[in-house]
């Protein structure tokens, strides 16, 4: 893959993350903010921690608990 393809893929992944937050009950006006929070949470993960679907779900659930004001 070239750089442009990686950039396009990254944008698609961010869009999918927005959809995940939508289905997690996020208020639409806060989805971009929640994506930023999610990225911060990933930055705080241990480097040797395996990144799986279960980890993604856990992060989203922990964000729902920490920031309930952004969810319905």
Topology:
Layout: H1 3-23, H2 31-43, H3 53-66
Helix pairs in contact: 1-2
* C-alpha termini separation: 39 Å
Order of helices and strands: HHH
Residue ranges: pLDDT <50 for 5 or more in a row?
none
Radius of gyration: 13 Å
DSSP summary, beta strand count = 0
Largest sheet composition: none
DSSP strand content: under 5%
Structural class: mainly alpha
- The count of helical stretches stands at 3
State the helical fraction.
Answer: 55-70%
Give the oligomer, counting copies of the same chain as homo and different chains as hetero. single chain
Please give a structural write-up:
- With 72 residues, the protein is an all-alpha fold.
- It has helices at 3-23, 31-43, 53-66.
- The model has no long low-confidence stretch (mean pLDDT 93).
- The radius of gyration is 13 Å and the shape is globular.
- It has one domain.
- It contains three helices and no strands.
- Helix 1 packs across helix 2 (31-43).
Descriptive tags:
mainly alpha, 3 helices
Quick overview of this protein structure:
With 72 residues, the chain is mostly helical.
């Amino acid at each position: 893959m070239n750089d442009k393809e990686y950039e396009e893929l990254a944008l698609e992944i961010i869009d999918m993350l927005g959809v995940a937050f939508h289905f997690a009950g996020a208020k639409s006006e806060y989805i971009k903010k929640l994506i930023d929070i999610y990225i911060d949470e990933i930055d705080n993960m241990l480097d040797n921690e395996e990144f799986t679907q279960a980890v993604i779900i856990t992060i989203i659930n922990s964000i729902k608990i920490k920031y309930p004001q952004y969810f319905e």
